[in-house]
Amino acid sequence: MAVLNDNPLRLGCTQWSDPAWRGSLYDAGSDADERLAQYCSVFGAVEGNTTFYSLPSADRVARWAELMPTDFRFCAKLPREVSHGARLDPQSVELRQFFARMAVLEQRLGPIWLQLPQRFGPSGLAELTRFLDQLPSEFDYAVEVRHLDFFRKDPSEQQLNRQLHQRGIERIVFDTRALFASADQSSATLEAQERKPRLPVHAVALSSQPVVRFVGGMDNQANLQALQPWLGKCAEWLNEGRRPMVFMHTPDNRLAPQLARRFYQQLQQQWVPTLPDMPSWPGELEAAQQPQQVGLF
């Protein structure tokens, strides 16, 4: 089932399990396992937000490993007990449990994400580098910072970028501008605006695998307009030989797969014609194969 093997761009969403995608991305009657398999037939990566809140069972992770092709990437977040505790402890029980539980995914795991809290600022850089230097070396990593002092293009930000670059660790770009530009008053949008950070966007690539998380609103036409700069940036990275990862969010994520597809199509048509065609969606293929009902009159 391996797809996108030779695709230098890994595109994905924040999850794979949304039943609302049945009938379009997924077959109408697909169960959870089938949705994962069908997601992996279209997209090359997924955000593993679930591990931030709690570790999945060993049986569940083993099942994921069976369903995910070896070239798929599950970008698991380190548990919040690790990232949001009093300090970054490379010897913590929760960190050891995370790696032990996720090891069955093998090369499917990664880059592993460390999402730091807003309070974690430049004064913690030495703590961060000590922590990163003691993580298992067989995996790739990416760090997301949210403290405003890492976004001032000053020595603090330069030092952060330098330390990550020296270790081959990417700095995640989290772009929520389209979300906060939205005037939509739906509960999903208002909740997303309440929960998501509002930070400057610095389109950095510190490794061969830059990571962008884009959060749009409920209007994909407006989202696509906001994505225009990322088309050029992804084309630039691809021309440099990098392999970017781009993840799409919308407030309730129902529109995220469509947004990802339209972004990819525009990138292919306008910037990088050598990109392979995006695979067909299983749910749309199923619908096309249904016999058309013929009226009696």
Automatic annotation (TrEMBL):
In Pfam terms, one family for this protein is DUF72
Cleaved signal peptide residues:
none
InterPro entries registered for this protein in UniProt: DUF72 (IPR002763), UPF0759_sf (IPR036520)
Stated name of the protein = DUF72 domain-containing protein
Which organism was this protein described from?
marine sediment metagenome
